[in-house]
């Protein structure tokens, strides 16, 4: 045991990758089984990094370092997996360190900013508030995706000062919006465990001269992996400050219902992975949304459906009794100046704009492409495509609105924008319609069935 939750396993005289992979899989599966502690079932996960030495020219310290780099890669891949060390990981580690160093200066250099996406009352179509979404415009690298820098901020503990800046900036924005609006901010597990969080919130609310209930904290289900007395005490402290609490991404993570009766939530946010394509008769998403709305209603909580893009989906959400909607159909994330103009010109009302029904037919394929974002290149796999959008696998947690460059070949480079993401899948919309045959060739694909596959 190296400390905390980190362990090192030495396997002597074994270098065959397949055997080492078998051991790694066995460890992951073994640790994934629930433990019974004081009558409660507890689950933990694990990630493994593997480095192999042939006994020549690799010191013990270098071997440990290589395994550590492989462990970082396993965590980046979504956790619960193993990764073997590769030389390219040194470059990734250097890139990670460069992002961390630049992130430390980003606040001082005024490179971070908040965008705001409208949250709309379903019945009245009035804007009740906004979700604050962080963006980082690096001085030389341009826009860097939150999916890239937020995990680094978490691991380096930079999320604490960044999170405080988000809360104070959001409160200052609320003071300009007026008393009839709220702003929601995301709170990470590391922020949540910081004992100074309630004091930070009260200080920010007081400094901005707003009512506490105008600030809403969105807390992910990951917090409940630790159902400790300290966690529940933090919930009570936050509730006593007067702010609203929302359970974010409900149904995508831990999803134990027991915490709903313990934690004083005001709202449940229905993840966009359930909303996208919910109007498709072949989808079970509508039944899932109906169940979540019923649960929230019984617990006297509001609901917000995220990622609503079409009028058909909006009509379904309205019919199922969801109280609020957030998505491109009512507006993209925008800066504060645009928000104030929107409220001034529309009198606080929102107008649904978007396609009436589901996307045009898609063609299934399996095509590896290069994806550019924020000055970096990634490999993705196109799983289905239409003239106006595509579903790409291999990109983790890409924020909606992120500009992307898709390279199908040397002379086939297209601009696109992320519309939604779920796990390692992202739906993109092309800046301009494309010719599918020119990209993947005729008669090499089959029509995708309805909206079984989610995409932009």
User: Nearest-angstrom radius of gyration?
Assistant: 23 Å
| Neighbour order of strands in the largest sheet | 5-6-8-9-10-11-12-13
Counting DSSP E segments of at least 2 residues, the number of strands comes to 20
* CATH architecture assignment name of the largest domain: Alpha-Beta Barrel
CATH topology name of the largest domain, in short, is TIM Barrel
**Distance between termini?**
45 Å
* Percent helix: 25-40%
How many discrete domains?
3
Regions with pLDDT < 50 over 5+ consecutive residues?
Answer: 443-456
Strand content: 25-35%
Please name the defining characteristics of this protein.
456 residues, TIM Barrel, Thrombin, subunit H, 3 domains, eight-stranded mixed barrel, 20 strands, 35% helix
Task: Note the topology.
Layout: H1 17-32, E1 35-37, E2 40-42, E3 48-50, H2 60-76, E4 82-84, H3 88-106, E5 112-121, E6 127-138, E7 142-144, H4 146-156, H5 159-177, E8 182-187, H6 189-192, H7 197-208, E9 215-220, H8 229-240, E10 244-250, H9 258-262, E11 267-270, H10 272-275, H11 285-298, E12 302-306, H12 311-319, E13 324-326, H13 336-346, E14 363-373, E15 376-386, E16 389-393, E17 403-409, E18 412-422, E19 425-430, H14 436-440, E20 446-447
Helix pairs in contact: 3-4, 5-7
What does this structure look like?
There is one protein chain. This protein is an alpha/beta fold and 456 residues long. The protein folds into three domains: 17-86, no CATH class; 97-346, Alpha-Beta Barrel (TIM Barrel); 363-447, Beta Barrel (Thrombin, subunit H), CATH 2.40.10. It is 35% helix and 27% strand. β6 and β7 (142-144) form a beta hairpin. The model is unreliable at 443-456 (pLDDT under 50).
């Amino acid at each position: 045991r190296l400390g905390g939750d980190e362990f090192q396993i030495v396997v002597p005289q074994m270098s065959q990758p397949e055997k080492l992979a078998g051991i790694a899989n066995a460890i992951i599966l073994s640790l994934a089984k629930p433990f019974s502690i004081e009558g409660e079932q507890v689950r933990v996960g694990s990630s493994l990094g593997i480095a192999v030495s042939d006994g020549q020219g690799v010191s013990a310290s270098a071997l440990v370092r290589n395994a550590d780099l492989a462990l970082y890669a396993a965590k980046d891949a979504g956790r619960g997996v193993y990764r073997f060390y590769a030389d390219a990981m040194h470059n990734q580690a250097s890139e990670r360190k460069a992002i961390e160093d630049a992130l430390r200066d980003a606040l001082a250099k005024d490179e971070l900013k908040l965008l705001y996406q409208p949250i709309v009352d379903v019945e009245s179509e009035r804007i009740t508030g906004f979700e604050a979404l962080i963006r980082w415009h690096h001085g030389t690298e341009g826009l860097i995706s939150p999916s890239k820098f937020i995990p680094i901020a978490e691991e380096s503990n930079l999320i604490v000062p960044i999170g405080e800046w988000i809360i104070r900036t959001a409160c200052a924005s609320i003071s300009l919006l007026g008393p009839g609006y709220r702003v929601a901010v995301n709170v990470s597990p590391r922020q949540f465990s910081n004992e100074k969080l309630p004091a930070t919130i009260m200080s920010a609310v007081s400094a901005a001269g707003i009512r506490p209930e105008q600030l809403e904290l969105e807390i992910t289900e990951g917090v409940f992996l630790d159902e400790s007395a300290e966690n529940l005490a933090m919930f009570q402290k936050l509730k006593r400050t007067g702010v609203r609490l929302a359970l974010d991404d409900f149904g995508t993570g831990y999803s134990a219902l027991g915490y709903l009766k313990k934690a004083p939530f005001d709202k449940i946010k229905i993840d966009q992975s359930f909303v996208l394509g919910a109007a498709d008769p072949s989808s079970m998403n509508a039944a899932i949304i109906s169940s979540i709305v019923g649960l929230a209603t019984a617990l006297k909580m509001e609901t917000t459906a995220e990622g609503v893009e079409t009028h058909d989906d909006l009509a379904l959400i309205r019919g199922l009794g969801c109280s609020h909607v957030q998505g491109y159909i009512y507006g993209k994330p925008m800066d504060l100046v645009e928000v104030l103009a929107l409220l001034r010109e529309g009198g606080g009302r929102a107008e649904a704009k978007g396609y009436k029904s589901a996307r045009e037919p898609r063609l299934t394929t399996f095509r590896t492409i290069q994806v550019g974002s924020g000055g970096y290149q990634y490999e993705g796999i196109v799983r289905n495509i239409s003239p106006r959008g595509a579903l790409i696998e291999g990109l983790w947690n890409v924020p909606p609105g992120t500009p992307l460059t898709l390279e199908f070949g040397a002379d086939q480079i297209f601009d696109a924008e992320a519309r939604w993401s779920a796990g390692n899948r992202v739906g993109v919309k092309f800046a301009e319609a494309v010719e599918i045959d020119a990209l993947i060739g005729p008669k090499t694909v089959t029509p995708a069935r309805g909206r079984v596959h989610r995409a932009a």
